């Protein structure tokens, strides 16, 4: 008799020939813990870190459950894998590439050439994209900027450029005229000569006093009346005035007290009033007047979009450039004799700058140029590699004689920056 061919029944009820197939044991699979969101950090992303030989950071272990307790600790590997390696968060952030220099991974995951933090901007030589370059002092609440932001420690100098020879000649003539007038008055015994001499000297003194009081206003009037230039036809080295909307550069600024973000210019000044027997805010503070006790003024590179041609130019006001800003600040804190209660914000602002908060009559003023404001800039045009820039002039700018206003030529150094927008008004969104 022939051997009977074995058969078996499937789960569907169908009979097939052959013995039933023995189920093989499943190989143990590798289990891993859930990986949290990395936020673009290459140290926390597994595969990207392995490709670039960047050590990873082991996420915080959660409480092990009964099903994954056997696989916790070191990573279980398959039969063909090598020994398990535990990765740590330490190690270099860049690796050498053959013939291409160092490759750096930024915190956003972007691969750039050069080490992390390279560039000319920054306190420690690194480039920052945020509004502040963080240092030890900035953690306490005071903004500390690097060399890319210009700190304006001095007031805008508006004066009259007259040679010393002319001044000495004028003083000698006045002195001799007085001596001759007094001698003739004593000899002739008539006051007509002294009156004639006074009629000549008094108008000169009044003219000088008038110019000292209204010289700044005359300069602002000169800037306002100066015609706007069209950047499209401006040549290299031409002195122009450009009016348009500003946008922030690589480092936007923030006001010190009100924390107004995305500014191109900020100023915060603390004034104190000195009575007959009060304390002086500075060595030059006189009685019965307001004196500056503390001042912060910063300006950085920004862009301006010309209203005339629509072109966009880079205004170079950073890296220690000479800038003459004419921005009227507003009073944000006013401490009088009747109001001695200081707000917590003002007390914190004083503490960050190590200023005393005793019984003094104080006034805090703050000014800024926010992104989207309309400003006027007066400087020299520079064209370099298809980049249009406005830089400060090397020589002081003169307003010329304003005969109808009885004003002598006024000089100011640096790039002139004015803003006529009200700081409380809405600006153009950009």
Automatic annotation (TrEMBL):
InterPro entries membership: At1g16860-like
Domain of life according to the entry: Eukaryota
Biased composition (Low complexity): 63-78
Entry keywords, A to Z: Membrane, Transmembrane, Transmembrane helix
Gly residues biased stretches: 116-128
Disordered: region residues: 1-134
Keyword rRNA-binding: no
Bilayer-spanning residue ranges: 165-186, 192-214
Biased composition, class Polar residues, residue ranges: 1-14
Full protein name: Ubiquitin-specific protease family C19-related protein
Organism: Clitoria ternatea (Butterfly pea)
């Amino acid at each position: 008799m022939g051997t009977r061919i074995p058969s078996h029944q499937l789960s569907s009820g169908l009979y097939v020939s052959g013995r039933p197939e023995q189920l093989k044991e499943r190989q143990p699979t590798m289990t891993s813990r859930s990986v949290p969101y990395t936020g673009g950090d290459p140290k926390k992303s597994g595969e990207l870190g392995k490709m670039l030989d960047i050590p990873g950071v082991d996420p915080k272990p959660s409480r092990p459950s009964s099903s994954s307790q056997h696989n916790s600790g070191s990573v279980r590997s398959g039969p063909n894998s090598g020994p398990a390696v535990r990765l740590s968060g330490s190690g270099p952030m860049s690796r050498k590439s053959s013939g291409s220099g160092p490759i750096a991974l930024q915190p956003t995951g972007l691969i750039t050439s050069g080490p992390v933090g390279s560039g000319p901007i920054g306190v420690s030589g690194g480039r920052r994209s945020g509004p502040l370059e963080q240092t030890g002092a900035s953690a306490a609440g005071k903004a500390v900027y690097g060399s890319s932001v210009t700190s304006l420690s001095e007031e805008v100098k508006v004066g009259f450029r007259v040679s010393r020879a002319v001044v000495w000649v004028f003083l000698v003539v006045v002195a001799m005229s007085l001596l001759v007038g007094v001698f003739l008055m004593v000899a002739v015994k008539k006051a007509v000569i002294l009156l004639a001499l006074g009629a000549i000297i008094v108008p000169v003194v009044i003219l000088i006093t008038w110019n000292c009081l209204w010289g700044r206003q005359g300069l602002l009037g000169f800037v306002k009346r100066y015609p706007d230039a069209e950047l499209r036809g401006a040549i290299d080295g031409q002195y122009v005035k450009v009016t348009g909307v500003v946008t922030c550069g690589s480092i936007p600024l923030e006001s010190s007290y009100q924390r107004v973000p995305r500014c191109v210019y900020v100023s915060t000044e603390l004034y104190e009033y000195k009575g007959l027997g009060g304390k002086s805010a500075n060595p030059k503070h006189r009685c019965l007047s307001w004196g500056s006790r503390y001042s912060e003024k910063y300006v950085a590179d920004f862009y301006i979009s010309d209203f005339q041609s629509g072109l966009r130019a880079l205004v170079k006001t950073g890296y220690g450039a000479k800038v003459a800003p004419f921005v009227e600040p507003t009073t944000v804190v006013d401490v009088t004799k009747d109001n001695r209660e200081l707000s917590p914000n003002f007390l914190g602002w004083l503490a960050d700058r190590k200023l005393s908060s005793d019984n003094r009559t104080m006034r805090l003023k703050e000014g800024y140029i926010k992104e989207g404001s309309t400003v006027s800039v007066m400087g020299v045009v520079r064209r370099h590699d298809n980049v249009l820039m406005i830089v400060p002039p090397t020589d002081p700018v003169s307003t010329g004689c304003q005969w109808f206003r009885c004003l002598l030529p006024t000089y100011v150094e640096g790039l002139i920056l004015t803003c006529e927008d009200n700081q409380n008004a809405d600006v153009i969104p950009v």
